[in-house]
Each structure stands twice: as C-alpha cells, then as structure tokens.
C-alpha cells in the first residue's frame, strides 16, 4: 500500500509540475526504502510503462503517444522536482512493544521506546497514530480480546502523558487473531504479546 501511495503521489505531482512546462514530463522515483513499482502513462495516442527508478517519459502533444522511456540523471530529477522533494511528508514508522504474560506491564526495553515514539509523532504533526493490541493464544479468546485492548489503552495513556494529543490516537484490539508468530491454541508466546504502533 505504501509503495502505490508513494508512486501515485509522485505521478500526480509530476503531472502538476509538468502543466507549467511546454511539455508533459513523468518521472518514476523509488520509494524511500529503494523499492520501485510501475506506472503506465497513457494519452489518446498510446501508452508506455515506467518500471525503473528515475525512468521518465515526455508527452509532446495530447494526441501523440508518450515518448520511449529513458533514464533521468538523479541530479536532474532533484533539480526539476526540488519543491516537491523539499516538502515530502516523512514516511510512516512502526513500533512493536512487548508485554509481560497476562499483563499490561511492558517489558523494560519496550517501556524505553516511548520518548522515541513521542518524538516521531511530534515530527509528523499533525499526525495519526494507530495503536493495536495483541495477545498470544494462551487462555480464553474473549479474555484475550479484552486484554489486548487494555494493553493498547495503556500505550495510549503513556503517549498522552508525554504530550501526544489523545484525539490523534486510534486504539483497537485484535486479541489473539493476528499473531506475529503462528502457534497452536493455548500457547504462550512472548512475540505475540504486543502492541503495534504506527505513526503516520
């Protein structure tokens, strides 16, 4: 999902900037992690596909096909799209916090992550924070659903204590339904006793 959102955003911005130029220009850039998707550029005269980082095509006239894809130098990409590059939102960040068995008490290493999480949230203000509680499969399913919600609410409480706006935090509970590590029923597993936090 992240890749396509990023590519479509770039595609739209490329067309927007190109509208001020004498011809249309579309450049496919890599995601922040270096991965590259693909995009098809179409006009009434035909279409071409871009599937490599910094591959570009020009559109001379609305009724003519886009030009054959060609690589664009990174320095040229940065020069043309400098306003866009300078205003890119930060990529989402993902944290996994682990808990003691049958408890809302965080493991020490996870408890130490909160200042960093709060800082990532501040850097993205305004931001949305997703907090999702999970458990292992040990015990009753309904109890685990409630336990994972209590874990998620504990994480939200700690974030609010650090100055994060409560209205920006979405809390939900998956119980034992989405384990990080697949196990059988009634199995204690430290990796699955967690809350996942995504900051966008």
Outline the structure in words.
This protein has 200 residues and is α+β, with helices and mostly antiparallel strands. The protein contains six helices and nine strands, in the order αβββββααβααβαββ. The chain has helices at residues 2-18, 74-80, 82-86, 108-111, 114-123, 141-161, and strands at 24-28, 39-43, 46-50, 55-59, 70-71, 93-98, 129-134, 169-175, 194-199. The protein has a four-stranded mixed β-sheet. Strands 1-4-5 form a three-stranded antiparallel β-sheet. Strands 2-3 form a two-stranded antiparallel sheet. The longest helix is centred in the C-terminal third of the chain and has 21 residues, at 141-161. The chain is elongated and about 65 Å long.
Descriptive keywords:
alpha+beta; four-stranded mixed β-sheet; three-stranded antiparallel β-sheet; 9 strands
List the helices and strands and how they pair.
Layout: H1 2-18, E1 24-28, E2 39-43, E3 46-50, E4 55-59, E5 70-71, H2 74-80, H3 82-86, E6 93-98, H4 108-111, H5 114-123, E7 129-134, H6 141-161, E8 169-175, E9 194-199
Parallel strand pairs: 7-8
Antiparallel strand pairs: 1-4, 2-3, 4-5, 6-9, 7-9
Q: Could you write a compact summary of the structure shown?
A:
The protein is α+β, with helices and mostly antiparallel strands. It has helices at residues 2-18, 74-80, 82-86, 108-111, 114-123, 141-161; strands at 24-28, 39-43, 46-50, 55-59, 70-71, 93-98, 129-134, 169-175, 194-199.
- Which residues form runs of ≥5 with pLDDT under 50? 1-10, 12-22
Give the helices and strands as they follow along the chain: HEEEEEHHEHHEHEE
Taking the alpha carbons of the first and last residues, their distance comes to: 13 Å
How many alpha or pi helices? 6
Strands ordered across the widest β-sheet = 6-9-7-8
Q: From the helix content, strand content and strand pairing, which structural class follows? A: alpha+beta
What is the typical, i.e. mean, pLDDT?
A: 89
Major sheet: 4 strands, mixed
* General shape: elongated
DSSP strand count: 9
Helix content: 25-40%
Give me the Rg, rounded.
23 Å
- Which percent range describes the beta-strand content? 15-25%
